[in-house]
Amino acid sequence: MNTERLKEVLAQARHETGKVIIGQHEVIEMALIAIFTGNHALIEGVPGVAKTLLVRTLAQVLGCEFARIQFTPDLMPADIVGTNVFNLQRNEFSLIKGPVFTSFLLADEINRAPAKTQSALLQAMQERMVTIDRDTHYLSPNFTVFATQNPIEYEGTYPLPEAQKDRFMLKITMKPPGREEELALAQRTMTAESPEKMLATGVVQAVIKAEELAGLREQLGTIVMRDELVGYLVDIVRATRTHESILVGAGPRATQSLIMAARAYAAMSGRDFMTPDDIKTMAVPVLEHRLILRPEFEIEGLSIAEVIRQILQQIAVPR
């Protein structure tokens, strides 16, 4: 297997997903980058922008299982990972697996559950295993969490702990469609070409089998990355720790995430080498959710994305 196969699969997956998800081309790319680097993504968007439909479609396109958890204030950790139940017929305990035993997991409105339930995902996300009654159970090697957050309704929500935010490789912001895209959606509603019907009737084709994903991921390591670009990337992450407007900067995991994301973006662009533009493109999605602004700058209306762009302008780009 070579990088040509990886680039071909990424292009096919983007095309097949685009049949269902109207517009949102950048969002589809970001989601594919999270999957092909073996990481997780935090999706933020108002209701109705197709967050759930995106993950369901990607699961079908990549031949993987899909499960969804609706996070609520009364959701318990056992509701996520599963529990042992006594079987009277067999006179023994049987494991009832929770929804984490899947490939693609949509954690819907993750900030609606208390911290102890949110943290139940931590071991699963980081190690792809869960512990139930002292027994360790391994998850699918393709296990990927897409957690959604509603950015406008904060009543009854619990902010995500910083440790958990750091385990999401990317923050994907889904915006409402443009006028032409929404017009196309309106025209397809209640027809055979509506997104839900296309997904249900098999119009969307699987481009690979689930077991092929691991081999394709390994090909990202062959994307050429010059030493000067590694230094440029490290300098960007380190600059977040000393910038005057940032209270908490990005840690070493952000450096690793940015390297993987930039390599995947290069492959998505049909190249087998990385450029400074790949790093610049992925800097905001990778770093934005990991940084905390100082209160005085936040009051002034400065956004974290703007700070990251300032840092990118300050650091010399290698030739």
Verbal overview:
There is one protein chain. The protein has about 325 residues and is an alpha/beta fold. It has two domains: about 5-215, 3-Layer(aba) Sandwich (Rossmann fold); about 225-315, Helicase, Ruva Protein, domain 3, CATH 1.10.8.80. The chain contains 15 helices and eleven strands. The strands form four sheets. It has a five-stranded parallel beta sheet with strand order 2-5-8-1-9. A hairpin with a 4-residue loop joins strand 3 (about 80-85) and strand 4. Helix 1 (about 5-20) crosses helix 2 (about 25-35). The radius of gyration is 20 Å and the shape is globular. The model has no long low-confidence stretch (mean pLDDT about 90).
Query: Which structural class do the helices and strands define?
Result: alpha/beta
How many structural domains can be distinguished in the coordinates?
A: 2
CATH architecture of the largest domain: 3-Layer(aba) Sandwich
What is the CATH topology assignment of the largest domain? Rossmann fold
Largest sheet: 5 strands, parallel
Please tell me what the overall shape is: globular
- Average per-residue pLDDT, rounded, comes to 89
Distinct helical segment count: 15
Radius of gyration, rounded? Answer: 20 Å
The total beta strand count reads: 11
Task: Identify low-pLDDT runs.
Answer: none
The CATH class label of the largest domain is Alpha Beta
- The helix-strand sequence is HHEHEHEEEHHEEEHEHHHHEHHEHH
In CATH terms, the superfamily of the largest domain is P-loop containing nucleotide triphosphate hydrolases
Distance between the termini: 31 Å
Helix content: 40-55%
